[in-house]
Design a protein that fits this description.
By secondary structure, the chain is mainly α. About 85% of the residues lie in helices and about 0% in strands. The chain starts with a helix and ends with a helix.
């Protein structure tokens, strides 16, 4: 895959992750409510996010290797290390939710809300950082092409 294609692919994944995060945010609001029916809807919404959560986990695991040469060549070591650490933290939160979700009930779903909210916060911060890093990759690639 060409470097430009890789960057565009990652940006497309980011849009899908933002859509999933918005879906999950709505489900978490319902899951945190006091009435049983809302919690049931919230739990169903979180369970509907299952495939998307698997996609996030795959994104965090595969993205580094897919763009490895660009990231290694064009990012500072500290930038690259931050990217990897954030992927690992998000992956841990996703894995934890995926372990707990099958056992959650409408009565216990509120227990998942803090972890779900932390995941969404990390996702949003990470995507902003990663978009910035993708911009740096493209910018620096342009600088090096003309030397």
């Amino acid at each position: 895959m060409e470097s430009r294609d890789s960057v565009e692919y990652i940006q497309k994944e980011h849009l899908e992750i933002v859509r999933l995060a918005d879906q999950m945010a709505g489900a978490l609001v319902l899951a945190a409510k006091s009435d049983f029916a809302s919690r049931q809807k919230g739990l169903a919404g979180l369970r509907n996010a299952w495939d998307g959560l698997l996609g996030i986990r795959q994104h965090c695991g595969s993205e580094d290797s897919m763009l490895e040469s660009d990231f290694h060549h064009y990012l500072e070591p500290s930038e690259y290390e931050r990217l990897r650490r954030e992927h690992q933290a998000i992956n841990r939160l996703v894995s934890s939710l995926l372990r707990e979700l099958p056992f959650a009930t409408a009565d216990s779903v509120r227990d998942l809300c803090p972890e779900g909210e932390e995941l969404l916060e990390r996702i949003h911060k990470h995507l902003a950082f990663e978009e910035d890093m993708l911009w740096h990759v493209e910018e620096r690639r342009g600088e090096y092409q003309y030397k």
